[in-house]
């Protein structure tokens, strides 16, 4: 298959690209940075220079591909509305390019669209109203009614490798800066995690077994805010303690402080059942990874 990818140089995208090439697929990647394009070209990837707003180019590349995987997102919390519009425009463009072909089109979302949940949430759990990547999910799912094999992959807050996760590194840096590791309130809120290799494998399986119009949760472990802070404190030789939501907002910013304290445990039974996905990394691997971060 020829697969067109956005975000091929990103955290999950790099791993997915390697898996697809290993399986013998042809990969075309939208790349903004010329230096990163060169690195991909050396691996045998067809590079397409452009940005997420190069809609004409994206339409053309999508129409030439057997499948499209959309991983890229503008992670600028100060311009979230703009990022959401860019995401929606790109998804709508690809749907128009693939309309009536039934070709797979996988988009990426996150468990954060669920807000805080009381129990492990599966894909049928209601999504709160308000601006979030759920808007992109709705757009994608509607594409299945137009003859496009749209699939949504929801990743957890913490996707990690042997060096930890991006969000954790932000929290660890603040702990080093403040001299103590922090959790909000009593720290009992829990969040799912998944190793990047397991996350990338889910996309490959979704291309093979995913059902159009479906959402899949991809998560294999979980941790509480307090557990995370205590692990950080032990590694750094400092104390851990709870802080108020107001203090957390001062430390991380208003939006990220809410994000870090969400209670989001995802149920991945559907992915295991329909995609035959199994996380290879045990739940303990996350704490092993963050220990190597500091």
The residue-averaged pLDDT reads 94
What does the largest sheet look like?
7 strands, parallel
Number of strands: 12
Level-2 CATH architecture of the largest domain:
3-Layer(aba) Sandwich
Q: Indicate the CATH class of the largest domain.
A: Alpha Beta
Which percent band covers the strand fraction? Answer: 15-25%
Task: Calculate the terminal CA-CA distance, rounded to whole Å.
Answer: 41 Å
At CATH level 3, the topology of the largest domain is Rossmann fold
Based on Cα principal axes, name the global outline.
Answer: globular
What's the arrangement of strands in the largest beta sheet?
Answer: 3-2-1-4-5-6-10
Helix content: 40-55%
Low-confidence stretches: none
How many H/I helices? Answer: 12
Elements, N to C (H/E): EHEHEHEHEHEEHEEHEEHEHHHH
Helix-strand category:
alpha/beta
CATH homologous superfamily caption of the largest domain: NAD(P)-binding Rossmann-like Domain
Number of domains: 2
The radius of gyration over CA amounts to 19 Å
Topology, element by element:
Elements lengths: L1 E5 L4 H12 L3 E6 L2 H9 L3 E4 L5 H10 L2 E4 L9 H19 L5 E7 L23 H10 L5 E7 L2 E3 L5 H13 L1 E5 L5 E6 H14 L4 E4 L3 E4 H12 L2 E5 L1 H8 L1 H7 L8 H7 L9 H7 L3
Parallel strand pairs: 1-2, 1-4, 2-3, 4-5, 5-6, 6-10, 7-9, 8-12
Antiparallel strand pairs: 9-11
What does this structure look like?
This protein has 294 residues and is of the alpha/beta class. It folds into two domains: 2-159 and 194-220 and 265-280, 3-Layer(aba) Sandwich (Rossmann fold), CATH 3.40.50; 162-191 and 222-263, no CATH class. 44% of the residues lie in helices and 20% in strands. The chain has helices spanning 11-22, 34-42, 55-64, 80-98, 134-143, 166-178, 196-209, 225-236, 245-252, 254-260, 269-275, 285-291; strands at residues 2-6, 26-31, 46-49, 67-70, 104-110, 149-155, 158-160, 180-184, 190-195, 214-217, 221-224, 239-243. The strands form three sheets. It has a seven-stranded parallel sheet, with helices on both faces. Helix 1 links the parallel strand 1 (2-6) and strand 2 (26-31). The protein is globular, with a radius of gyration of 19 Å. The mean pLDDT is 94.
């Amino acid at each position: 298959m020829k697969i067109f990818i956005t975000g091929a140089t990103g955290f999950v995208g790099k791993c997915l690209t390697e898996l697809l090439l290993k399986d013998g697929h042809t990969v075309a990647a939208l790349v903004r940075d010329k230096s990163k394009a060169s690195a991909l070209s050396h691996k045998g990837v067809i590079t397409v220079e452009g940005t997420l707003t190069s809609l004409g180019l994206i339409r053309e590349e999508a129409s030439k591909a057997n499948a499209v995987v959309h991983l890229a997102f503008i992670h600028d919390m100060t311009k979230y509305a703009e990022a959401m519009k860019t995401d929606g425009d790109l998804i709508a463009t690809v749907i128009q390019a693939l309309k009536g072909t039934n070709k797979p089109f996988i988009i990426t979302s996150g468990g954060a669209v669920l807000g805080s949940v009381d129990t492990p949430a599966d894909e049928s759990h209601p999504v709160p109203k308000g601006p979030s990547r759920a808007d992109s999910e709705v757009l994608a799912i509607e594409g299945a009614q137009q003859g496009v094999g749209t699939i949504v992959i929801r990743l957890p807050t913490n996707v990690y490798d042997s060096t930890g996760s991006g969000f954790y590194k932000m929290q660890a840096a603040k702990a080093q800066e403040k001299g103590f590791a922090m959790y909000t309130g009593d720290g009992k809120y829990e969040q799912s995690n998944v190793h990047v290799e397991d996350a990338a494998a889910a996309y490959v399986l979704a291309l093979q077994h995913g059902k159009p119009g479906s959402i899949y949760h991809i998560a294999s472990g979980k941790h509480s805010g307090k557990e995370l802070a205590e692990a950080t404190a032990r590694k750094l030789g400092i104390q851990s303690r709870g802080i108020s939501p107001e203090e957390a907002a001062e430390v991380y910013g208003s939006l990220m402080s809410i994000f870090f304290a969400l209670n989001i445990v995802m149920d991945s039974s559907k992915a295991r059942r329909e995609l035959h996905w199994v996380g290879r990394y045990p739940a303990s691997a996350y704490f092993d990874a963050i220990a190597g971060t500091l």
